């Protein structure tokens, strides 16, 4: 684990990922490498007119040796002061950050068959984990189940589809809760599809339990976790969670 320290970060580039999600690429102003483990997050200190607030954001990029850069993906929450500030922030502006932080990492299970389950920007730590595993050349199954409302809300869709096409051990499953008639993929909530994928992964591994990582808002995380523990009897040590609220 790398020590968590305060540092200044400059917003280098931004792009819109979906109608409500903005990607922000930061780099340390001192040019020092930003070292972290995939799945960790940073605390951003946001100087609002009424005083400073701190908000946590999972790092969406994989660590790159020697690089001062890291990427975030921020959902614009209606009436939310932190996310509104970050959606209005201009390239070139700087912020105080504290990090890296958090224990939502693959740790000693880094090369184990894994299922990642996310809704919305809960996907960000998994983008980092999958990218890091591909760079490391790991070949154990890395399956992602992502839930959103509409097709336009699919986060990093092209990139993940490309990774899955290029690497047979990577699978990208998307389920939409408000899909239009033309959508031919999965429908409904991630809860409706998680059991099937865990069973398939078990079968692929000769009955061995995969590790399942769940990230997003509390209600989804809690309900998927209950399902995995109660219906599929996944051992506690195989279920990892990160809650955004
Ligand atoms: C460890 C950790 C990592 C996080 N990583 C991310 C991330 O990568 N991207 C990101 O956008 N947010 C992330 N969050 C949430 C983030 O810290 C803020 O809570 C969020 O930006 C809302 O802050 P706000 O000041 O705009 O609104 P607030 O007024 O503080 O929050 C209002 C409500 O917004 C809802 N909310 C919080 N996060 C989200 C979200 N992502 N999508 C939809 N609704 C949400 C919650 O119900 C919350 O109660 C993370 C939180 C934690 C604890």
Compact overview of the structure:
The chain is an alpha/beta fold and 245 residues long. It contains five helices and twelve strands.
Structure description:
- The protein has helices spanning 81-88, 124-136, 157-166, 194-204, 218-231, and strands spanning 5-18, 21-28, 41-48, 51-58, 69-75, 94-101, 114-119, 142-148, 170-176, 186-187, 211-216, 239-243.
- It has 245 residues and is of the alpha/beta class.
- Strands 4-3-6-1-2-5 form a six-stranded antiparallel β-sheet, with helices on one face.
- The two termini are 24 Å apart.
- 38% of the residues are buried.
Keywords:
globular; alpha/beta; 35% strand; Rossmann fold; 245 residues; six-stranded antiparallel beta sheet; six-stranded parallel beta sheet; 2 domains; Elongation Factor Tu (Ef-tu), domain 3; 12 strands; binds flavin-adenine dinucleotide
Shape: globular
Please give the largest β-sheet. Answer: 6 strands, antiparallel
**What are the secondary-structure elements, in order, as H or E?**
EEEEEHEEHEHEEHEHE
Q: Whole-number average pLDDT?
A: 97
Write the layout of secondary structure elements.
Elements lengths: L4 E14 L2 E8 L12 E8 L2 E8 L10 E7 L5 H8 L5 E8 L12 E6 L4 H13 L5 E7 L8 H10 L3 E7 L9 E2 L6 H11 L6 E6 L1 H14 L7 E5 L2
Parallel strand pairs: 7-8, 7-11, 8-9, 9-10, 11-12
Antiparallel strand pairs: 1-2, 1-6, 2-5, 3-4, 3-6
The chain binds flavin-adenine dinucleotide.
């Amino acid at each position: 684990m790398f020590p968590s320290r305060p540092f200044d970060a400059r917003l280098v580039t931004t792009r819109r990922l979906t109608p409500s999600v903005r990607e922000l690429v930061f780099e340390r102003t001192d040019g020092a490498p930003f070292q972290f483990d995939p799945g960790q997050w940073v605390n951003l200190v946001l100087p609002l007119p009424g005083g400073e607030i701190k908000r946590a954001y999972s790092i969406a990029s994989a660590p790159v040796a020697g690089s001062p850069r890291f990427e975030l993906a921020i959902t614009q929450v209606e009436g939310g002061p932190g996310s509104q500030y970050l959606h209005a922030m201009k390239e070139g502006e700087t912020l105080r950050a504290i990090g890296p932080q958090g224990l939502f990492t693959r740790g000693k299970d880094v090369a184990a068959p894994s299922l990642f389950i996310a809704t919305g920007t809960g996907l960000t730590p998994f983008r980092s984990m999958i990218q890091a595993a591909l760079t490391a050349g790991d070949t154990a199954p890395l399956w992602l189940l992502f839930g959103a409302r509409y097709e336009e809300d699919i986060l990093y869709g092209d990139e993940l589809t490309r990774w899955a096409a290029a690497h047979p051990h990577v699978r990208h499953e998307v389920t939409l809760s408000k899909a239009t008639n033309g959508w031919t993929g999965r429908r409904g909530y991630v809860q409706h599809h998680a059991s099937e994928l865990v069973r398939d992964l078990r079968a692929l591994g000769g009955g061995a339990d995969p590790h399942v990582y769940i990230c997003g808002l509390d209600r989804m995380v809690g309900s998927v976790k209950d399902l995995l523990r109660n219906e599929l009897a996944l051992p506690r040590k195989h279920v990892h969670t990160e809650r955004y609220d």
